[in-house]
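Q: A reviewer asked whether we had any structural model of the full assembly, not just the individual parts. We don't, so I'm hoping you can provide one. Inputs are below.
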Amino acid sequence: GSVSDMLSRPKPWSKLTQKGREPFIRMQLWLNGELGQGVLPVQGQQPGPVLHSVTSLQDPLQQGCVSSESTPKTSASCSPAPESPMSSSESVKSLTELVQQPCPPIETSKDGKPPEPSDQPASDSQPSTPLPLSGHSALSIQELVAMSPELDTYGITKRVKEVLTDNNLGQRLFGETILGLTQGSVSDLLARPKPWHKLSLKGREPFVRMQLWLNDPNNVEKLMDMKRMEKKAYMKRRHSSVSDSQPCEPPSVGIDYSQGASPQPQHQLKKPRVVLAPEEKEALKRAYQQKPYPSPKTIEELATQLNLKTSTVINWFHNYRSRIRRELFIEEIQAGSQGQAGASDSPSARSGRAAPSSEGDSCDGVEAAEGPGAADAEESGGPAAAAKSQGGPAEAAAAPEEREEAPRPAEKAQPPPSGTPAPDDADDEGRPRAPPPPPPPPPPPEGPADGPGPVPNPAAAPAAGEDAATSAAPPGEGPCRARDGADRSSALPSTSAPAAARRASSLQSLFGLPEAAGARDSRDNPLRKKKAANLNSIIHRLEKAASREEPIEWEF
DNA sequence: TTGCAGTCAATATC
DNA sequence: GATATTGACTGCAA
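A: Here is a predicted structure for the entire assembly that you could use as a starting point for your response.
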């Protein structure tokens, strides 16, 4: 169906997203005879690895292929079928070298680029194709990701930010050329990096790319060149368009008749972006606090009450949950690092200020908090837990609104009890308020301890959490921390020993990992312990309730 | 089906 | 103009 659609109604290149371009690139390659049996037209010394995913295709395309024009279609180079994913250690090694030396970058590839579909490469607005990594290294970015030892995502983003700002390089340029991501994504990534172990393979890719980029001695230079080129291209285009009225620049105007594709549809396809009013957001947050996982029924009610589409409400919950989770991650990280530094000021203080707006908010939606007192209360402590656990009813009774605003800073594990406006039926909703289990985190080597950590809700730590909480819990169960301990050194995921070891070292050098992960040890953080305890109790209650099936009051 | 991870891309802010 | 925010979408897993 997709193919049919694509063949009959192709969108103009300029209107396609990176992803959307892939099929066309594939088609072009296929037409050129370059796309063989799933083998990447990778050039370079090593046999091209099999294309594992589309994403990976981009790299070679962008660089390999692109530059391949120099060695173009010599499918010869591409053909070397993959046989085996080449010994990873080897590939890594060579990749390392590639990365570490000024690779044949982007620029080169760009200019010479043939007429490919994207011959408007240097385009400003669409930076054309992203060139993730320079050189062939890109080819096995996925392998690298898979074999990569734990990286300090926080540290990496920090460094990247520094380099970018120091050199006046924009996120857009960086994202599009190095990461293959849009500006918004880059911003988000740099501002709220998730801990390595919480990332999926795909999610790790940008970090690996960043690390590789950081390792590249010419990274800045290359980006600068790109910047220059873009500028040049832009000027050029401006000129020509002025004179020749060439329709290719108007980014916004969008239409793009270029392919004759009906402009109309495009227009109509564009749905205006929904912007929720502050009150709506408030209401949603309140509802979230009551039920982070509202039932369809609740969602519907909310939608009608707020006059929103149910899909909007659903999306909002999804986004909110996941964003809160992220906030917590960074908070964790920050807490961890700061904790180490200043003991005294730790927890409370820190979170108070460090978590400025976003955090507070994030965390449960609670936004600001008014009363300072409130805030502290929670923080300081224990209170929170205690209060929560006991206070169910009371809280409920209390003014809902305020309550929620109250404090739950970031961690909380659970949604506050009480009542807010949620759609009345707050009560039952069959769904567990406890959010489901979270993330089976990728396999952090250690497993258990790692619990999902600081998740917003208890649920977060479901299974794992459980143990974590209960058994393994001991030491602050913190999320990341736990795991860090041991494995960190080993850094290697699973894999077998020797090979793994070897790989590890090469990877180490590749990534130049200083010390891998960032957030570490905050084990002794008292606040954490408290939280862990709280979590435990929540989990227990949940379990109990679940087994008994009674609606119980879920207040904690 | 549902929830989540990742992203995009339109907007809002700085 | 660059960066931050955020609603929506896609793909995947349970």
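A: Points you may want to mention in the reply: Residues 19, 170-172, 183-184, 186-188, 190-191, 200, 271, 273-276, 311-312, 315-316, 318-319, 323, 440 of chain A lie near DNA strand C (CB under 10 Å from a C1'). Chain A is about 55% helix and 0% strand.
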